[in-house]
UniProtKB/TrEMBL annotation:
Native organism: Bacillus changyiensis
Primary site of residence: membrane
Major facilitator superfamily (MFS) profile domain ranges (all copies): 11-328
Membrane topology: Multi-pass membrane protein
Keywords tagged on the record: Cell membrane, Membrane, Transmembrane, Transmembrane helix, Transport
Lineage: Bacteria, Bacillati, Bacillota, Bacilli, Bacillales
Bilayer-crossing regions: 12-33, 45-66, 78-106, 164-183, 203-224, 230-253
Subcellular localization: Cell membrane
Keyword RNA-binding: no
Protein name: MFS transporter
InterPro entries with a match to the protein in the record: MFS (IPR011701), MFS_dom (IPR020846), MFS_trans_sf (IPR036259)
Length: 328
């Protein structure tokens, strides 16, 4: 047990803890958020979707503007700021009464997400030996998939009884994570800032279509309501299947593609993403929908894991956060 505890650094263990908490509560919320907001605000779906689009736009702006700045001030400070934004955002959603407040809290949510994810990956790279990074990224993915497996089921039960409780759970999870970072997490960023620069931004540009596809999946859940009866049940099955497939397919697909060149990995994964996008567009039955999820999961299992490992080796020490920002 002691050997297992020492296998990972303190920042990595705290990251595992946070991913476990926020992974479950995030998966509880994401399938039902649009439905909740539309029912609460009384606006048509298009109005809500326009506001929801603020989040990915904010993430892009934060990525472009804050990348170099956050690489200089340290990982711990940025993560605390990001989690603080998420706590305020989750609490704000509970009190949303008009479309403008919704826009404000969605902006804060986008700022928090845009700051957190690349900074967390940069921190893992800082505090983990090169030979262990792939394993740590894989463990994080498994934790995320575990949360995504049980989260929608819990979320369906909570949403059916008391929708606001989902936001309370999420705010509490982010607050616990913030406290763990504040009291236990050391700073991992090297104190010396080096000015040499190297870049392969052309690779990162290829991640933009993937980000757009994920945004489509997050915002267009309601199309399932048109196609299927028992919309909430189908939505829960959709998310649980995605999570279970991620847990079972990731390791064999990653192992099987370890010796492939990065350009080959990208070609295979993009073919899967394109096929799954067409599948989602023309799904007319649950079986077809699950097949599309299967193809989509194959693509993300092959690409995202290899991309994180590749970027961790490619990025200069003083620009790790910026490189990870362009790769998500």
């Amino acid at each position: 047990m002691k050997h297992f505890k020492q296998r990972y650094s303190t920042p990595v263990w705290i990251c595992f803890f946070g991913e476990f908490l926020t992974g479950i509560t995030g998966a509880m919320l994401s399938p039902f958020l649009l439905l909740y907001l539309q029912n609460t605000l009384g606006h048509n779906l298009l109005s809500v979707l326009v506001i929801v689009g603020i989040r990915p736009l904010t993430e892009i702006i934060v990525t472009l503007v804050a990348g170099g700045w956050t690489d200089r001030i340290g990982r711990r400070t940025v993560i605390l700021t990001a989690l603080g934004c998420q706590v305020v955002s989750a609490c704000g959603f509970m009190m949303v009464e008009n479309i403008w407040l919704l826009a404000l809290f969605y902006t804060m949510n986008g700022v928090g997400a845009g700051l957190y994810t690349p900074t967390q990956r940069a921190q893992i790279t800082d505090s983990t030996n090169s030979g262990m990074r792939a394993e740590v990224f894989a463990v994080i993915h498994v934790i995320e998939r575990f949360g995504a497996t049980i989260g929608p089921v819990i979320g369906l039960a909570v949403y059916s009884c008391h929708p606001v409780m989902i936001f309370i759970f999420q705010a509490f999870a982010f607050l616990l994570y913030w406290l763990a970072v504040y009291f236990k997490m050391p700073e991992t960023y090297p104190s010396k800032y080096q000015k040499n620069f190297s870049s392969k931004k052309s690779l990162f540009l290829f991640m933009l279509p993937i980000s757009l596809l994920y945004s489509q999946l997050e915002t267009n859940y309601r199309y399932l309501e048109v196609l299927f009866d028992h919309f909430l049940v189908i939505l829960t099955i959709f998310n649980v299947c995605h999570a279970l497939l991620g847990m079972t397919l990731q390791i064999p697909l990653v192992k099987g593609s370890e010796k492939l060149e990065m350009k080959t990995v990208i070609m295979i994964s993009y073919s899967c993403y394109a096929g799954s996008a067409l599948g989602f567009a023309f799904s007319s039955s649950l079986v077809w929908l699950i097949l599309s999820i299967f193809i989509f999961t194959c693509g993300e299992s092959i690409l995202l894991h290899h991309m994180q490992s590749f970027v961790s080796k490619l990025a200069p020490v003083h620009m790790r956060r910026r490189y990870f920002a362009f790769s998500v």
